[in-house]
Structures are given as C-alpha cells and as structure tokens.
C-alpha cells in the first residue's frame, strides 16, 4: 500500500535561547543557557582587550599568552596540568581575536566544576615558563611560514596590508609577524597578562543541562575566586583605518603556479547597520554562499574554472568588509577575474524574488539546527558578547529575515555596492599581469 505524501507544515518562528544573567562577587558577568538533556557543559570565558593594546614591537604576544596560560602555574607544572585535564576529561582551548581573549572549556556535567577550578588556576597564576614560551614562539614562526605558503592566506595578508593604513592594527597579522613574534619572551607574556587578563569587564557563558543555583555556587567557588585589579582602558581608534588611494590591485607573483587565488574586497556594514543586519547574510548567500549562488553558477558550474568561489559580508565591531574569493585555473585568471567583477557589478541591476526566498528559507529554517547543541549556543553568545551585543540580536535579525523581499536586498546592496575595491591575485604574474592590466581595474602592482 502506498501511503499519501505527508503535508509539510510551514516552519514556525524560532527564537535564540534566552540566558539567565548574574554577576559573581569578583565582577565577572555570567550568562547561563539551560539546555536540558545536554550533559556536556560548554563554557566560554571572554576577556575584552582589543589587539590594539599589544606593544607594536611584540605583536602576537596576546595570542602567545592565550597559548601558554596552561603551560604551568604556581601550583602545577605543564605536564601536571595536562594530566589533570586529561584525567577528568576536560577539554581546554584558548585564542585571541580582534576584540579579546576567548577561552573554551568542555566537560561532562559531573566534571565541570573541576574544569572551572583548573581554568581559574590558569587565569590567576600562570608562570609562563621560558622554555614553554620559546617552544610556542618557534611553533608560531613555523605556522607563519605555512601561512605564506598558502595562496589563500597569502592573499588575505596582502589584502589587509594594502586596504588598511599601516598604522592601523588591522593592516598587520592578528597573531603577529615573523619579526614581532620572534621578539616575544616570557617577560612579555607576564606583562601582557598582568595588565589585560582580568575579571573586570569579562563574561563567562555556560550552556548545558544546568541547575542554576548549583551552577552559580560552583562558579563562585571557582572562577569567582579569580581576583585582580581593574584593567586599564583600551583605545580602539586605530583598529581598522582604511588607506587612501583605492581602488587598487596587487599581484603576488608565484612563477609556475597552476592556480591563481583571487580576493576582491571592499568596505561593508557591521551588525548595527542602518535598516538592520538581516539583508546581509541573505546577500552573502545569493552572491557566493551556495553552489547555486551567482558567482559559483558561472565560475564553477558553467565555466569550470574553480572548485568554489565564495562571497559574503564580514562584520567587525565597528564597520566591516565584503569579500569575494576563490582559486581558479591559472590559464583562466583574466577571464575569471573579469567574470567575478561583472557578477558583482551586475548585482546592482537587482535581485529576484526567487533568490530572496531561497536565501530566507535556507538561513531562517536551518537556524534551529545550527544552534541545537550547547557548544553552538555558547559560541554564538560569546561572539556576540565580544561585539557588545546580546543573543536577542539573533532572534531579532531572524524575525526581520523572514520578511525580506528582493527590493530589500536591492536597497541593502546599493548602500555598499559602490565602495572602492581592493583586489589581490596570487599566481604567475609574469604570465598574466599584463592581461589583467587590460581589464581597466586601475594600477597593477606586482609583488615578488
């Protein structure tokens, strides 16, 4: 017997989970997301201190501090700490981004308090052993070599150094250069940690199957015992200053390269964009967020020049960027660049209702699945908190997203479509630079 096909009901409106907010005795803000049935607790600790606070001569020291806080404390050696984390099944990781330090901790419910106690120890009494810091410095220097060898990373580094003024922190690698990382010592890590890694202004986000009174008492016994003086104010005015003399194109020469990395970037909005943020994820999807997007449909599906060409808006805490990027066959360098620019210019002639609906359906209807796990909830809450936003932002922009039309996408695109572009190519400049100049994209600078 063949049963009739079931009716698919329309997706219901969905809201991001709301946290219960508290503050510990040491001033540390707490956001608790109760996710019943999820017995691995996800913790994110956020310490706001933008990269601009790093001393210029040792840029990368913030990332080095994040890597070495657990490499020995006043109470335990690096090996002892590693054994303690492993014995209790606690996973710890840390990293530094433009707005500050983020520490991630995953543990089963029964071992979460032990994880928080070990985290407090790493935050409040790290000793930054010289041998461990030197080891991580050497590792970071090796990573920088790999980043320069990667066409995508090389293009991103060149784009940032070209698009932003040299005095702007955004013009230089977030985790430091070969020269600055090579100067970092244990003493530099100690100084940075003492000045900037503090509970004042920091937030801890916890998501999982939580008993709130029990969790709060546990946090007070552990992270609540992390005490330091209040941090100094940070001047973020030099974070991302755009250089003059746009548009421009830089061709990084790699003789014999069989592919060319193309990166096209310009100014874009941040999450506080006038008119709301919702149109911009939709525009990203339509232009370069799926195999059916405008760029891929031509460069990949029709021409076969690339395995994938992506585009999208990337918000910063103040302002943002728009990028379109991908690798193409070397012999298609000129035509692929011309097509990509034509697609972006052609977007100004309008989007279709079908494109708008596909973007709205994909982004909106997959949201509940994207945020189904405790770690995804904690990650999103942490990212928004560092940007000075609450998780209500997600609920609000998804509600706006559901109402978007093609006309809304047109209006949002027109606000940013005419921003000057900076273009970086990484490939065989000897073969293709002259042909690129013929595209009337402005002056072409070749970097060897």
H-E order: EEEHHEEHHHHHEHEEHHEEHHHHHEHE
- Strand elements, count: 12
Q: Tell me the overall shape.
A: globular
In which order are the strands of the major sheet placed? 1-2-6-3-5-4
Query: How many helical elements?
Result: 16
Strand residues, percent: 15-25%
Distance between the ends: 70 Å
Radius of gyration: 24 Å
Per CATH, the class of the largest domain reads Alpha Beta
According to CATH, the homologous superfamily of the largest domain is: Metalloenzyme, LuxS/M16 peptidase-like
By CATH, the architecture of the largest domain is named 2-Layer Sandwich
Stretches where pLDDT is under 50 for at least 5 consecutive residues are none
Quote the average pLDDT: 94
CATH topology category name of the largest domain: Cytochrome Bc1 Complex, Chain A, domain 1
Roughly what percent helix?
Answer: 40-55%
Q: What is the SS-derived class? A: alpha+beta
Query: Structurally, how many domains make up the residues?
Result: 2
Q: Major β-sheet, in short?
A: 6 strands, mixed
InterPro entries: Metalloenz_LuxS/M16, MPP/UQCRC_Complex, Pept_M16_N, Peptidase_M16_C
Pfam families: Peptidase_M16, Peptidase_M16_C
Protein name: Putative Zn-dependent peptidase
Domain Peptidase M16 N-terminal: 30-147
């Amino acid at each position: 017997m063949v049963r009739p096909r079931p009716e698919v009901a329309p997706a219901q409106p969905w809201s991001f989970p709301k946290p219960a907010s508290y503050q510990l005795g040491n001033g540390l803000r707490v956001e608790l997301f109760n996710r019943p049935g999820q017995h691995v607790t996800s913790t994110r600790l956020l310490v706001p201190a933008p990269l601009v606070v790093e001393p210029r001569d040792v840029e990368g020291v913030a990332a080095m501090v994040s890597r070495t806080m657990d490499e020995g404390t006043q109470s335990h050696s690096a090996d002892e700490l590693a054994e303690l984390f492993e014995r209790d099944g606690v996973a710890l990781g840390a990293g530094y981004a433009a707005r500050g330090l983020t520490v991630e901790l995953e543990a089963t419910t029964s071992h979460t308090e032990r994880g928080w106690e070990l985290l407090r120890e790493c935050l409040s009494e790290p000793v930054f052993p010289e041998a461990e810091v030197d080891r991580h410095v050497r590792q970071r220097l090796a990573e920088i070599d790999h980043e320069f060898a990667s066409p995508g990373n090389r293009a991103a580094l060149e784009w940032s150094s070209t698009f932003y003024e040299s005095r702007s922190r955004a013009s230089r690698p977030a985790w430091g250069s070969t020269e600055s990382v090579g100067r970092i010592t244990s003493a530099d890590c100690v100084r940075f940690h003492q000045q900037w890694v503090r509970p004042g202004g920091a937030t801890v986000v916890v998501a999982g199957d939580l008993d709130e009174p029990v969790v709060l008492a546990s946090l007070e016994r552990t992270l609540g015992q992390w005490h330091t003086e209040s941090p100094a104010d940070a001047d973020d005015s030099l974070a991302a200053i755009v250089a003059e003399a746009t548009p421009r194109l830089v061709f990084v020469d790699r003789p014999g390269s069989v592919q060319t990395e193309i990166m096209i970037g310009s100014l874009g909005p941040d999450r506080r964009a006038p008119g709301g943020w919702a149109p911009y994820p939709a525009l990203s999807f339509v232009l370069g967020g799926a195999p059916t997007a405008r760029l891929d449909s031509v460069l990949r599906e029709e021409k076969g020049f690339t395995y994938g060409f992506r585009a999208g808006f990337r918000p910063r805490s103040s302002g943002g960027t728009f990028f379109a990027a991908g690798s193409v066959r070397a012999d298609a360098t000129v035509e692929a660049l011309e097509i990509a620019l034509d697609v972006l210019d052609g977007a100004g002639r309008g989007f279709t209702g079908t494109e708008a609906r596909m973007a709205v359906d994909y982004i909106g209807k997959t949201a509940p699945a994207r945020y189904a796990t405790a770690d995804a909830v904690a990650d999103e809450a942490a990212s928004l908190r560092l940007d000075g936003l609450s998780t209500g932002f997600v609920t609000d922009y998804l509600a706006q997203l559901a109402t978007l039309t093609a006309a809304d996408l047109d209006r949002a695109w027109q606000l940013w479509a005419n921003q000057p572009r900076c273009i970086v190519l990484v490939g065989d400049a000897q073969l293709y630079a002259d042909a690129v100049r013929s595209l009337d994209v402005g002056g072409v600078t070749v970097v060897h």
